[in-house]
């Protein structure tokens, strides 16, 4: 848990685990479910306290040390630049992405997001946000699904050009010129 130096009203929370656990056939399902349950509990607690989660994700390509999404890393931006924009922009997209009430409205709410067909599950959250899950199993989150998950929230992703040295290394991001 960390407060942002330049924006002390923002609290960010990150946890780290081994990506290998997500891919290992004998542990993958259980590990994925454990992380999903953890996120669900955090969202329930926030909702019960009258707080909305404005962004969240479960991914295997996040820069935990700096608290940046893979998309932020690829664009060369930092949380102090993206946090103030969370009511109308996403910090990125992942296997599981939580979006703010404002972003959810811009995307047409639950029905609008479901109509894209990009997600296997779209769950409404207290306060109006949405939890978007690309596939039931992270191992099925390959290039075709990544493209669909990129296209669905594209209007609310930060503008910018990707740093080519980063994007070539990350297979879970899509950038079109």
Labels describing this entry:
177 residues; alpha+beta; four-stranded antiparallel beta sheet; two-stranded antiparallel ribbon; 8 helices; globular
Compile the SSE list and pairings.
Layout: E1 2-3, E2 11-12, H1 19-23, H2 28-48, E3 55-58, H3 70-75, H4 79-82, E4 96-99, H5 101-106, H6 109-114, E5 121-124, E6 130-133, H7 143-151, H8 164-167
Antiparallel strand pairs: 1-2, 3-4, 4-6, 5-6
Task: Report on the architecture of this protein.
The termini are far apart. The protein is built from 8 helices and 6 strands; from the N terminus they run ββααβααβααββαα. The radius of gyration is 15 Å and the shape is globular. The strands form 2 sheets. The chain has a 4-stranded antiparallel sheet with strand order 3-4-6-5. By secondary structure, it is α+β, with helices and mostly antiparallel strands. β1 (2-3) and β2 (11-12) form a beta hairpin.
Taking all Cα atoms into account, the compactness measure Rg is: 15 Å
Query: What are the secondary-structure elements, in order, as H or E?
Result: EEHHEHHEHHEEHH
Low-confidence spans: pLDDT under 50, at least 5 residues? none
Mean pLDDT: 83
- State the end-to-end CA separation: 35 Å
Strand order, main sheet: write it out: 3-4-6-5
**Which percent range fits the helix content?**
25-40%
Number of helices: 8
Shape: globular
What structural class results from the helix and strand content?
A: alpha+beta
Biggest sheet statistics: 4 strands, antiparallel
